């Protein structure tokens, strides 16, 4: 009973100490990771000392429960030893007193030796029991994750869309309502619009209007709370998310690159030849120089006319000086390593690699989310030209901050506070007095340029319609 009492006290204290220790451990890792990511900024502002101190404080916070744990173990040891000594003493006393002192010497020795061992065993029973209980803290955390509602299945066998889906790229959004969580207010409030096959739609709006949320809804990263999205007549909420996502391409604001090589990032399933990958890199302006034709890519996967690749152990090395404009040339082979999250590339280069990935994949529906936000104007213009030429057969939804990017698109969808406020050709919207799009163009400081470009596009469209 004495052991049980001591054990119960020890376990209830050590369980909580362990909890403190676990809770104070993750801030150390988080802070350390964040410091590593932002080390150049920290150095630039001379704040190394502050971050080192913050690190020490977090380590101290974590060390405190560790000291208490050691103290609790010593507390337990002393009490268990004292109780053990008492047990041994009683065993000796009983041996002397039992049967009037005529107990066998061997038996007396054995009972004394058992009494001494007993203390050690009890100590370990209490220790192991408490370690077991403390470690169940981690199980408790895992159980929290088990309770999270999983995403929809990757594929639903009896609802797999046809292999050629989407053949046209027609998108219908019907009364779409989006919420990030049931407890949060909607960020998209019942919007409806239609996108015709192969149309190029610019999506604009103020910060927080819901543009990125709409892109996430297209991929079902955020599920619709009400309403639906149809692509070529298929309600995307009824099919597997894998089937949906494999047929769409998104170039997000902050593209994800995987640890591996340029090749594994462009073509993770090894479905394309090296020459196709090189061509995509060149068309995404990652190699500098003008866009070349497939015929200029030779069988080794090198681009014969514009650059002079050297072959070295199967790798193709393109020197910066050998490109026509030498601008972004940093790719030194399809086997060039891509580090975690693509941190060995700039944000702009990561977007260009994502564009190259889209060029390789060539899906019928493409979503660009500020796809060219981190590149300079010249490169942006080139990329826009590539997008126009290469994705001619695809339906394109482009979320843009630079209005000149989308002013010659087929139509512009203007979102404001989660609602569609305008949806028409750029020229019609610019001609509409006091419209939000017109207001945004006026504020951009390049109204004349935008108006002229929109008018040119309208005339070209009208002429083409008249021809048909
Ligand atoms: N993960 C999230 N959880 C909760 N609310 C979010 C989340 N992401 C965005 N929101 C909210 O949704 C609304 C729309 O955000 P969204 O990112 O779609 O706007 P946006 O038009 O793309 O803005 P920006 O031009 O700045 O990228 C905002 O009010 C924002 O606070």
Automatic annotation (TrEMBL):
<feature type="domain" description="ABC transporter">
    <location>
        <begin position="171"/>
        <end position="442"/>
    </location>
</feature>
<feature type="domain" description="ABC transmembrane type-1">
    <location>
        <begin position="1"/>
        <end position="130"/>
    </location>
</feature>
<dbReference type="InterPro" id="IPR027417">
    <property type="entry name" value="P-loop_NTPase"/>
</dbReference>
<keyword id="KW-0813">Transport</keyword>
<dbReference type="InterPro" id="IPR017871">
    <property type="entry name" value="ABC_transporter-like_CS"/>
</dbReference>
<dbReference type="GO" id="GO:0005524">
    <property type="term" value="F:ATP binding"/>
</dbReference>
<dbReference type="InterPro" id="IPR050173">
    <property type="entry name" value="ABC_transporter_C-like"/>
</dbReference>
<dbReference type="InterPro" id="IPR003439">
    <property type="entry name" value="ABC_transporter-like_ATP-bd"/>
</dbReference>
<keyword id="KW-0547">Nucleotide-binding</keyword>
<dbReference type="Pfam" id="PF00664">
    <property type="entry name" value="ABC_membrane"/>
</dbReference>
<keyword id="KW-1133">Transmembrane helix</keyword>
<dbReference type="InterPro" id="IPR036640">
    <property type="entry name" value="ABC1_TM_sf"/>
</dbReference>
<keyword id="KW-0472">Membrane</keyword>
<dbReference type="GO" id="GO:0016887">
    <property type="term" value="F:ATP hydrolysis activity"/>
</dbReference>
<keyword id="KW-0812">Transmembrane</keyword>
<dbReference type="Pfam" id="PF00005">
    <property type="entry name" value="ABC_tran"/>
</dbReference>
<dbReference type="GO" id="GO:0000329">
    <property type="term" value="C:fungal-type vacuole membrane"/>
</dbReference>
<keyword id="KW-0067">ATP-binding</keyword>
<feature type="transmembrane region" description="Helical">
    <location>
        <begin position="76"/>
        <end position="99"/>
    </location>
</feature>
<dbReference type="InterPro" id="IPR003593">
    <property type="entry name" value="AAA+_ATPase"/>
</dbReference>
<dbReference type="InterPro" id="IPR011527">
    <property type="entry name" value="ABC1_TM_dom"/>
</dbReference>
<protein>
    <recommendedName>
        <fullName>P-loop containing nucleoside triphosphate hydrolase protein</fullName>
    </recommendedName>
</protein>
<keyword id="KW-0677">Repeat</keyword>
<dbReference type="GO" id="GO:0140359">
    <property type="term" value="F:ABC-type transporter activity"/>
</dbReference>
């Amino acid at each position: 009973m004495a052991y049980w009492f001591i054990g119960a006290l020890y376990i209830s204290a050590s369980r909580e100490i362990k909890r403190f220790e676990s809770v104070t451990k993750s801030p150390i890792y988080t802070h350390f990771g964040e410091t590593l990511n932002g080390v150049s900024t920290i150095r630039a502002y001379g704040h190394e000392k502050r971050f080192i101190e913050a690190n020490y404080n977090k380590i101290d916070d974590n060390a405190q429960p560790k000291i208490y744990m050691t103290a609790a173990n010593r507390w337990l040891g002393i009490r268990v030893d004292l109780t053990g000594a008492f047990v041994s003493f009683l065993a000796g006393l009983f041996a002397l007193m039992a049967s009037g002192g005529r107990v066998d010497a061997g038996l007396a020795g054995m009972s004394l030796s058992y009494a001494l061992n007993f203390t050690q065993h009890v100590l370990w029973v209490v220790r192991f029991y408490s370690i077991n209980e403390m470690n169940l803290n981690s199980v408790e955390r895992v159980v929290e994750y088990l309770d999270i509602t999983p995403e929809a299945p990757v594929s639903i066998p009896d609802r797999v869309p046809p292999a050629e889906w989407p053949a046209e790229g027609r998108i219908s959004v019907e009364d779409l309502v989006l919420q990030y969580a049931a407890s949060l207010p909607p960020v998209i409030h019942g919007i409806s619009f239609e996108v015709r096959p192969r149309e190029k739609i610019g999506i604009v709006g103020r910060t927080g209007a819901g543009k990125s949320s709409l892109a996430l809804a297209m991929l079902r990263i955020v599920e619709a709370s009400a309403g639906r999205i149809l692509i070529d007549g298929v309600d995307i909420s009824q099919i597997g998310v894998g089937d949906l996502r494999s047929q769409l391409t998104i170039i997000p604001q902050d593209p994800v690159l995987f640890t591996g090589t340029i090749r594994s990032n462009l073509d993770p399933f090894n479905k394309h030849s090296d020459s196709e990958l090189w061509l995509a890199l060149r068309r995404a302006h990652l190699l500098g120089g003008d866009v070349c034709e497939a015929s200029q890519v030779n069988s080794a996967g090198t681009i014969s006319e514009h650059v002079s690749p050297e072959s070295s152990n199967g790798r193709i090395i393109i020197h910066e000086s050998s490109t026509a404009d030498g601008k972004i040339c940093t790719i030194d082979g399809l086997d060039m390593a891509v580090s975690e999250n693509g941190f060995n590339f700039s944000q702009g280069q990561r977007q260009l690699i994502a564009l190259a990935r889209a060029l390789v994949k060539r899906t019928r529906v493409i979503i660009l989310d500020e796809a060219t936000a981190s590149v300079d104007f010249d490169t942006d213009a080139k990329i826009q030209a590539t997008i126009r030429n290469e994705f001619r057969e695809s339906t394109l939804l482009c979320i843009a901050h630079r209005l000149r990017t989308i002013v010659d698109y087929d139509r512009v969808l203007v979102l404001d506070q989660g609602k569609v406020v305008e949806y028409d050709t750029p020229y019609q919207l610019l001609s509409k007095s006091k419209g939000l799009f017109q207001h945004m163009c006026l504020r951009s400081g390049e109204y004349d340029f935008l108006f002229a470009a929109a008018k040119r596009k309208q005339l070209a469209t009208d002429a083409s319609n008249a021809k048909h």
